[in-house]
Amino acid sequence: MNVAELDQILLAGAVVLLVAVVAVRLSGRLGLPSLLIYLGMGLLLGESGPGHIHFEDAQIAHALGFAALVIILTEGGLTTRWNEVRPVMPLGLVLATVGVAISVGVVASIAHYILGLDWQIAVLIGAVTSPTDAAAVFSVLRRVPIRPRLRGALEAESGLNDAPTVLLVTLVSTGATSEHGWLYFTGLVFYELVVGALFGFVIGWISVGLIRRVALGSAGLYPLAVVSLAIISYAGGTVLLHVSGFAAVYVTSLVLGKAELPHRMATRSFVDGLAWLAQIGLFVMLGLLASPGRISLNDVLVALVIGIAVTVIGRLLAVVVSATPFKVPWQEQAFISWAGLRGAVPIVLATIPLAEQVPQATRIFDIVFVLVLLFTLLQGPSLPWLARKLGVLDENAAFEVEIDVAPLESLNADMLQVHVPSESRLAGVEIGELRLPAGVSVSLIIRRDEAFVPDRRTVLRAGDALLVVAPSPLRDQTARRLRAISRAGRLAGWFGERGRENH
């Protein structure tokens, strides 16, 4: 490749990226998951579209797909609120293991006995289509204000169910399941998930200590450090311990996201942009790998049958069996069942049989591709309506505030950056009514691009940006107080971040 060819590639890539960024707004207006638009862009650029780009290297697609999933899981872990995930982590783990096993069994049985597919192909289709997709869940559900416990369970499941399904698809594709048996597979899944999660926790704990103690020369270096440490968790777990790198990177990111690190909001913004880039590249690449010209009507019908089997039968049974012991109400079980979105993960998993040259692997990929397109188009736009009908919306979601931390190392203090959203009950509250801990002060208010120093009688307004200086030991207490008032108003007691509610 010479410089002229590189310039052409950069021009084409920048145009595609810009169109993809603009398409996010279009997908939001239409109520469609953005992955559908990106897959469509890949199809248009592919050999069957006007772009005429020929791409059929399944091994490269497999490798790049895994790399993109690492970034997506990193962003998901960093932006997931630990207080929401921690109580439902056992439920998420059961959904990611027992639930996946039930779904695979149901789909494989239907594919074999009703569609007449060979057992290896049937099990592969069941394993490929059973996991939920982290990118789809993180991007779609965070626009639907459902209850924190419900959102936490879905996000935990999508972050953890990649590990067992990747292992199952790999073993079935290579024929190792017939050689070692299911007992070996169950033990291997247990080892990879448990040790991978423990490894991720240790790396996350070490990373938090390092970032807090080492003063970096620039604020822009903190996001790079966080992403590097998350990737080390994935690669280190995979290479050194042969455990699930996906479980490791997700747990590491959860630990990093829970900690009050310096320049936390800047880090989240950086990783959010990186995750968008990974999603765009991943979906466009998978669209390039697909070929609509080879998809027959029979493949579409098979995709419909498999989609109904996995979405309606397998998923519902898996959720009922997994969630009932945790006393999850039927309304939440129904929503969890329908919100098990499939996206990039099933298509990426379908590249494993392609790379291993399994018989009918191309047909499996085409069926899965059609299934993801059809059922994402059906499920994604219907989630807000279903959440309202089932009564699982979070009434306090409009009152959230985002709080960032800027370190003041020499004073052993932190500066909290607080934005007052339009629905927050901080609006109308006087500074003196905040009753912040002694030693904490609101040092500056920025209102309509004008900054001023407030007094005790200054009334906060929607859209205000506050700079609050707090001694480090009082930082968390101050953040809890501000969140409580944002949710419950000036009369809020000390009931934690959820105001008058603490569940």
The oligomeric status of these chains comes to single chain
Helical stretch count? 19
Mean pLDDT: 85
Distance between the termini: 57 Å
What's the SSE pattern? Answer: HHHHHHHHHHHHHHHHHHEEEEEH
Low-confidence stretches: 495-503
**Sheet with the most strands?**
5 strands, antiparallel
Main β-sheet, spatial strand arrangement: 1-2-5-3-4
Radius of gyration, CA atoms, in whole angstroms: 24 Å
Describe this structure in words.
- This protein is mainly α and 503 residues long.
- Helices cover 65% and strands 6% of the residues.
- Strands 1-2-5-3-4 form a five-stranded antiparallel beta sheet.
- A hairpin with a 2-residue loop joins strand 3 and strand 4 (450-452).
- Helix 1 (3-30) packs antiparallel against helix 2 (34-45), helix 3 runs parallel beside helix 13 and helix 12 (221-241) packs across helix 14.
- The longest helix has 32 residues, at 182-213.
- Residues 495-503 have low confidence and may be disordered.
